[in-house]
Amino acid sequence: NWKKTELDGRSKDELYQMEATFNEMIDHLKDNFQKQEQFVSNASHELKTPIAIVKSYAQLLERRGLERPEVFHEAVGAIDSEADRMQKLVEQMLLLAKNQSEEDHTTINLVNLCRKSISTFTGAYDRAITLINEQENVMIYANEEQIRQVVYILISNALKYSDDEIRVSVGQDGHQAILEIEDFGQGIRPDDQAKVFERFYRVDKARSRETGGTGLGLSIAKTIVEAHEGTISVSSTYGEGSIFTVKLPIEE
Ligand code: ADP
């Protein structure tokens, strides 16, 4: 009905306010749409490479596989590892697409979760991973499986990109739980530090491919942490090592 009556100062202000909010919403939607498009384009690019490799090895097998055993073994090995890669990519893309709802949240002790994750890793790898905790309990209200995933991603990266000891520290600062994963490896240049959380970003594509990297790990970690109203960041000195820090709200 406002059209019929004369707009007084207040309604005009409200109208401008609505327009500004509306424009902001449209910009936000556009931005999301572009990100989604970029994701689909990156994802198809990443999947095309292993598919092309599998196809060319299948053709090689067809031509030479029967008469040359070394060709047979090379081709079967490559097909197997490319299939693993595709499987990992698809699993990680599904993790990213998962709805981050609060449904499965429970009260968990971050210290225990880290202790368990570390023992899984030290059982499988011959590497020193030290837990440093100032207190026995750091309680958060979270999806346990997802937080375990974050810890897993950060420790596996530290293992991949360094050769020495890894330190995991869990503490509390006021209302925040603070988790730090520190390595003394290759480090990340300042320009790359902000980009490592982007989907599919890898500092060294070739090396990361060798180590089985997809460039999705840190973006999954970021999505999960932000869905828990937390933050994730990195501080690193190139050539010396990196510290990834996760902050999550404490369960009061
Ligand atoms: P990836 O599967 O390639 O490891 P991530 O999203 O987990 O993907 O990491 C993105 C990139 O960030 C990696 O390719 C690597 O270049 C860099 N990176 C991640 N963690 C570390 C680390 N602890 N030390 C040095 N570089 C790292």
UniProtKB/TrEMBL annotation:
It is an enzyme of class 2 (transferase). It catalyses: ATP + protein L-histidine = ADP + protein N-phospho-L-histidine. The keyword Lyase does not apply. Its EC number is 2.7.13.3. GO terms for cellular component: plasma membrane. One of its GO terms (molecular function) is ATP binding. Residues 1-34 form the HAMP domain. Residues 42-252 form the Histidine kinase domain. Keywords: ATP-binding, Cell membrane, Kinase, Membrane, Nucleotide-binding, Phosphoprotein, Transferase, Transmembrane, Transmembrane helix, Two-component regulatory system. It is a multi-pass membrane protein. It is found in: Cell membrane. This is Signal transduction histidine-protein kinase ArlS. The chain holds residues 196 to 447 of 447 of the full protein.
